Amino acid sequence: MKSTSSLQPNLMRRKSCGRPMRTYWQLYVMLAIPMCFLFLFKYGSYFGLLAAFEKYKILKGVFGSEWVGFNNFLKVFSHRRFGDALRNTVLLNALDLIFGFPMPVILALMLNEMRHRPTKRISQTLLYLPHFLSWVIVGAIAYQLFTYGTGVVNDIIEQMGGNRVPFLQENTHWLISYVVIGVWQSMGWGTIIYLAAITSINPELYEAAVVDGANRWKQCWNITVPCIKPTMVTLFIMRLGQLMGGSFERVIALKNVATTEYTYTIPVMVYDMGLLSGTSKIAQATALGFFQSIIGIMLVIGADYLTKSLGEEGLL
Q: How high is the mean pLDDT of the chain?
């Protein structure tokens, strides 16, 4: 039999936990909606992964279909275009990582050095805007600007005496345009986290650097960059986990019949198998998506282990 004194801390703890819920119940009700969405579409869909190991039939469902083990994975790996999809996915995402990851950092450092507040706010708004445009709109704008025959950019180049450039109608030029457009669309939004990390730096560090005679460049390189390094490492690990992913909408919005060498990626292959091929290859599409997720998890764990072995703070 527990004494009354030992029960009092537990009762006080329960009251302290229940008081915020009673006081801010409206916020908890609002939170319930995205939480239901998360559990329904993120965790509830995990049962569908069983289709990757079955001869899936829609009428029988995942619990009634015949179990075939890893046969679907073998069919996917032996597909005639699996090698192309794997190569293109890694290539496009690796280029995005190489050129897209440093840009938000550089942009955040530049915005942090702006002293004219109205100009800084206008610049941030203009840089954030592309993030809110869907890839359908971005693709339409890109074709209006960069198409070979009637593109505005090619018209300007021709009027200046140059030759038209097939930005989106030739494989190598399409690859460069794909990376540049992706960096432009995402770099402004990516600066938000870095700017938040910069604002948390102790101002006394900069004051001490000024006393020691450090200019703005030395303050940025020796104070700002090291202080946001943990944030950079965390975001790099998260980006590395997307190396086998990729944006399906981005590829579809920018692809065309003239550029087919780099546009067939794993997300496009999943779409072709899962939807365009009817119901006969749903299990193979699930197996391919499952393989893609497993590789992503392995990359995240491997990168986290490597960063910790180098003395940095990891993600996990």
A: 86
Q: Quick one: pLDDT at residue 71? A: 92
Look up residue 79 and give its amino acid. H
Between CA 253 and CA 142 the distance in angstroms is: 9
- Written as one letter, the residue type at 19 is R
Helices (H), the chain: 4-23, 25-38, 71-77, 82-95, 102-113, 117-128, 135-146, 152-159, 171-199, 203-211, 216-219, 225-227, 229-240, 248-254, 266-271, 282-309
Under DSSP, is residue 66 helix (H, G, I), strand (E, B) or coil?
Answer: strand
For 216, list phi and psi in degrees, rounded to 5. -65, -40
User: CB count, 10 Å around CB of 97?
Assistant: 15
Per-residue pLDDT band at 266 (split at 50, 70, 90) = very high
- pLDDT tens string 214-254: 888 889 898 999 999 988 988 888 888 888 887 889 999 99
CB 292 within 8 A of CB 265: no
Q: Which domains does the chain have, with CATH numbers?
A: 1-69 (no CATH), 80-309 (1.10.3720.10)
DSSP letter at 51 equals G
Instruction: Read off the amino acid at residue 202.
Output: N
Contacts within 8 Å (CB) and 24+ apart, 56-59: 56/282, 56/283, 56/286, 57/279, 58/279, 58/282
- Which residues neighbour 162 within 8 Å (Cβ) at sequence distance 6 or greater? none
- Are 194 and 200 in contact by the 8 Å Cβ rule? The answer is no
Say what the pLDDT of residue 91 is: 93
Q: Is the pTM of this model over 0.85?
A: no
128 contacts 186 by C-beta, under 8 angstroms: no
Structure tokens at 201: 């730096």
Cα 250 from Cα 256, distance rounded (Å): 12
Look at residue 11 in the predicted model and tell me its pLDDT: 47
